[in-house]
């Protein structure tokens, strides 16, 4: 029993892979969430406000995020406070207003581009395109879209990030071996 407890304690030093999704349903329309901890990440949009948009006006249900005002060229930026982020997905789109070029870029701590995804939506598009990037140790992502008249005139929803499993530290393995476990 003692060996089982020691093994369990040391194995707990490593963590399993996990995914976290923020769907923004826990907020109210108009809430300013700029810089708030949203479960392992914070959102900013340059000098703009990141606010909750009441999707009932467009889709009949739910909430998503928008930047305010739309006239500034400030994409969304999500900075992670957790380590080991290896994949990020976000729905980015519009509500039948104009054509937009959408993008999602992933960076490491040294501002090196890890991965990118770009696509375009037509002016008749209503909804979200899911953009996904992946790579080891993503520190932050930049995403958004727009056009020349309205540089960041898109909305976002269902922000999801995944973390890689963190292995048991080598010192823990040596200790387990020394204990004969």
Q: What do these coordinates show?
A:
With 181 residues, the chain is mainly β. 10% of the residues lie in helices and 44% in strands. The protein has 2 helices and 11 strands, in the order αβββββββββββα. The strands form 2 sheets. Strands 1, 3, 4, 6, 9 and 11 form a 6-stranded antiparallel β-sheet that branches. Strand 7 and strand 8 form a beta hairpin. The radius of gyration is 20 Å and the shape is globular. The N and C termini lie close together (12 Å). The relative contact order is 0.24.
Report the average pLDDT across residues. 84
Query: For the terminal residues, how far apart are their CA atoms?
Result: 12 Å
How would you describe the shape?
globular
- Strand fraction: 35-45%
Summarize the biggest pleated sheet. 6 strands, antiparallel
Ranges where pLDDT stays below 50 over 5 or more residues in a row are 1-13
Q: Please provide the ordered H/E string of secondary-structure elements.
A: HEEEEEEEEEEEH
The secondary-structure class comes to mainly beta
Helix content: 10-25%
Number of helices: 2
Radius of gyration: 20 Å
How many strand elements? 11
């Amino acid at each position: 029993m003692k060996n089982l407890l020691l093994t369990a304690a040391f194995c707990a030093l490593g963590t399993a892979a996990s995914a976290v999704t923020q769907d923004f349903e826990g907020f109210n329309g108009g809430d300013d969430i700029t810089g708030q901890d949203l479960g392992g990440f914070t959102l900013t949009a340059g000098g703009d406000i990141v606010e909750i948009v009441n999707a009932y006006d467009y889709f009949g249900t739910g909430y998503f995020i928008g930047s305010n005002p739309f006239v500034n060229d400030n994409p969304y930026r999500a900075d992670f406070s957790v380590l080991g982020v290896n994949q990020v997905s976000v729905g980015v789109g519009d509500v039948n207003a104009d054509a937009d070029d959408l993008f999602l870029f992933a960076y490491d701590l040294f501002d090196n581009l890890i991965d990118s995804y770009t696509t375009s939506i037509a002016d008749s598009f209503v909804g979200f395109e899911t953009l996904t990037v992946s790579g080891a140790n993503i520190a932050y992502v930049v995403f958004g879209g727009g056009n020349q008249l309205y540089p960041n005139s898109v909305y976002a929803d269902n922000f999801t990030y995944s973390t890689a499993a963190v292995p048991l530290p080598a010192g823990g393995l040596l200790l387990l071996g020394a204990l004969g476990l």
